[in-house]
Each structure stands twice: as structure tokens, then as C-alpha cells.
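tl;dr need the bound structure. longer version: we got a ligand (flavin-adenine dinucleotide) that a collaborator sent over and nobodys looked at where it sits. i said id run it. heres the input, straight from their email, havent touched it
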Amino acid sequence: MSRPGRPRVVIVGAGFGGLAASKGLSRAPVDVLLLDRHNYHLFQPLLYQVSVAALPPGEIAYPVRPIFRRQRNLEFRVAEVSGIDVARRVVRTSAGEISYDHLVLASGAITNFFGLDDVARHGFDLKDLPGALRLRNHVIRRFEEAISTEDPATRRALLTIAVAGGGPTGVEVAGAVSELLRRVLRRDYPALPAGDVRVVLLEGGPRVLATFPPDLSRAAADSLARLGVEVRFGALVEGYDGRRIRLRGGETIDARTLVWAAGVRAGPLGASLGAPLGRAGRVTVEPTLQVPGHPEVYVIGDAAVVRAGDGEVPALSPPAIQMGECAARNIARAVASEPPVPFVYHDPGTMATIGRSAAVCAIAGFEFTGFFAWLVWLFVHLMKLVGFRNKIVVFVDWAWQYVFYRPASPLIVEVYRPPVGTDSTPQRT
Ligand SMILES: Cc1cc2nc3c(=O)[nH]c(=O)nc-3n(C[C@H](O)[C@H](O)[C@H](O)COP(=O)(O)OP(=O)(O)OC[C@H]3O[C@@H](n4cnc5c(N)ncnc54)[C@H](O)[C@@H]3O)c2cc1C
């Protein structure tokens, strides 16, 4: 795999950071081994569109091998990485131990349920394709159940979707789900009373999109309200049994669907480095992205904490890409016996979409809302998608939905299992 005399760089994770690091090493005199548990790169910013049937899964995922077909110094392996032994410089994987000269850990983040085990068991998170498909199946199946339910209270609970967390993911999911339920599925289920459909966004703090400028938070909350989303502030989820959400203070909400978008934390691999961990379990790295005491190990993207000014670099795709490029540059410099350069974050701005035709954007000191912001959001996301075919089919799907309000993929794709007992307790497949 590795040619004699050439250092081996192992990169864990084919997400935004891992891909950027891999590409950045294409001309370096090293052999690169890229590892991921999946054989595809996932465009997570559009994951929620799979969960609301707006896009089929293949349009937001791209197989890794074709991306690197022309990169001769790179090999790709599908493998689950279970730990890193920094003393022996080996990565433990499902395909055996793999040694490295330089390591880039780009394993991203996992959902943070903050110890709420019942929420983890009965709720739905959005971190991977199977999860997004489970949510899509679940919501459409609840509609199928609601249509044959006589009891009004049960029907209302079946048609109630709660989203916990008012960050960009929660806002985007709530807006898209509300649109799906009210405008699209309602046409296919005319017998269901419109008033029974309820989408509730539960935010623990005083505003949605807390990291955006306050007037954009207000614009987002107004857009959500126009889409029929009930936005609740100071609403902290304490438990969920698959039927009833318990909020701090004792209030309950009957809902057969809870989407958990209230936080992420780093996965367990960072901890196996034995390095200092910062907020949400992320590895605190040097300004050069190296692990203290192990200059041959770099941690990037959502797995790392990097300081920028008074705060931290946000856990978003642009920083992950920029860190991947910086880690690649520093590895090439190390091979050339040059000192590493510090990571400098260039903030391209933030944006979030609300439903089918509104968004909020804060870019280079300018703020946009409404339809124009949505066009900006649309353009940026299309450009960032990996694969020319995906750009084209996603654009066609969005145009089709914009004109006809038809979801691209409203299918229940799961192995049929008879409900446990006679009720409709959510079945996770
Ligand atoms: C629903 C959602 C919406 C988002 N929306 C936006 C947005 O609009 N804009 C934005 O900028 N950012 C958004 N983000 C955040 C953005 O996706 C992340 O910041 C970015 O993906 C981080 O890149 P990364 O390379 O660190 O990790 P990731 O892209 O998560 O990649 C990590 C990779 O590591 C692999 N991996 C993890 N553990 C292992 C293991 N043990 N063994 C083998 N492989 C492993 C995973 O399979 C994955 O391919 C969103 C995230 C989510 C979940």
C-alpha cells in the first residue's frame, strides 16, 4: 500500500475535512490512505431534505472512489476505526491495525442527547442517511395510520411533529416538515382534518438561530410562523416515551414524532488520542491543528476545538474544509522539513433556509432575508454538492417541487413489521 521511502498519511473520515485534506495532499510526496465506515461522502447540510422526502438519498451522497479516481497517491478503504494508539502510531480498524507516519483525524461529530436515554431511544436525529430515511418512513407511516384512526386525540398526536433545538438544523427541519405536511401530504390525504397537523419547534433559549444576528433570528421565527410552525421559547425537553414529550416545568406534548436537533458532540475517537478535550468532547489542538505532544497527529473539523479571536471556530462545513487544507499543507511542510503554519479561518458567512422559498443569510457584514436569501442559499448549496450529476438532479427536483409542490421521494422504504400489540408506538427499523 505504501511505497518504500514515502511517508504514509492516514486520514480518518471522508467528510468535508477528510476530503479537503486528501485533495490537498495530491501533489505531496506521500502515500495517503483514506478510511471511512461508509463508501460515500455525505452532504449533511441537505440531510433534512431526505427526511422530508424532498430529495432521494442518492442525490446528497457521492461514492468516494470516483472522487479520487485520478489521485494516484491515494487509496480508499471502507473500515470502522475503533481507536488510535499514538505511542505505536497505529490506527485500530475493522480491517486490522494500520500504521501511519502522519494521521489526520476528521471523524466529525455525533448527536448529543445530553444523557436523555429515552429521547435517544424514541426520538430521531439527523446525522446519517439511514437516520434521515427512518424519519421519512416514520412520518409518512404516521400519516397512513392517522387516516384510519377514529379517535381524534390519537390522530392529533400522530400528526404532531416536535423538533427540539432552534439552531439551523432544527429551523430547517421544522420549516420543511411543516411545508411537507400542510401543503404536500395534505393533498394526498384530503380526508385528514387540516387543523390536526401540528409542528412545534422547542427551543430552550430566548431565540432561534442564536449564533446569527438578532434581527435574522426574528426574521426566521416570523418565517416559521408563516409556515404554521409553533415556535416555543424556553422549552427544554426532559424526556420522551415515544408518545408524550415532557418539558421542564411539567408541561407535556402528545406527539408521535420527536426530531432531536439540540446538539452534537465529538465522537469517541478523539478521546483515544489521550489529548486534552474541550467543549462537547472535541480535541483541543494547537493553532497548527496538531495534537499537543504529537506533532504527527492532526485533528480537524467537528472533531477539533480551534480558537479564533475571543471564541471558537464554528462546527460547520467551511471551517472543516479549510482545516483539511491547512492540515494537508502542514503535512507537506513537515515532509519538506519546514515548520507548520497556523490555521487562519476565513468566515464565508452563515445561512439557514426556512421552507421552500425563504432563508436568512449573514455574509461579509451583509444580511439578507426572504426570497433573495433563499436564492443565495440555493446557489451556494448546489455549488457545494459533490458531483455534477447530483447538482443537476437536485436542481431539477427543487424546481419541480417549487412549481408542483410534489415531494421527490414520499416512499415508505422499510421492511414491514407488524406493530407491537395493537397500538402505533414508533417502530425504529
Ligand atoms: C443535519 C445537519 C445539517 C447541517 N447543516 C449545515 C449547513 O447548512 N452548513 C454548514 O456549513 N454545516 C452544516 N452542518 C455541519 C457540517 O455538516 C459539519 O460541520 C461538517 O460535516 C463537519 O465536517 P467533518 O469533516 O468534521 O465531519 P463529517 O463531515 O461529519 O465527516 C466525518 C466522516 O467520518 C466518518 N467516521 C466517523 N467516525 C468514524 C469511524 N469510527 N470509523 C470510520 N469512519 C468514521 C463518517 O462516516 C464521516 O464520513 C450540518 C450538519 C448536520 C448534521
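gonna send this back to them w/ a short note. The mean pLDDT is 91.
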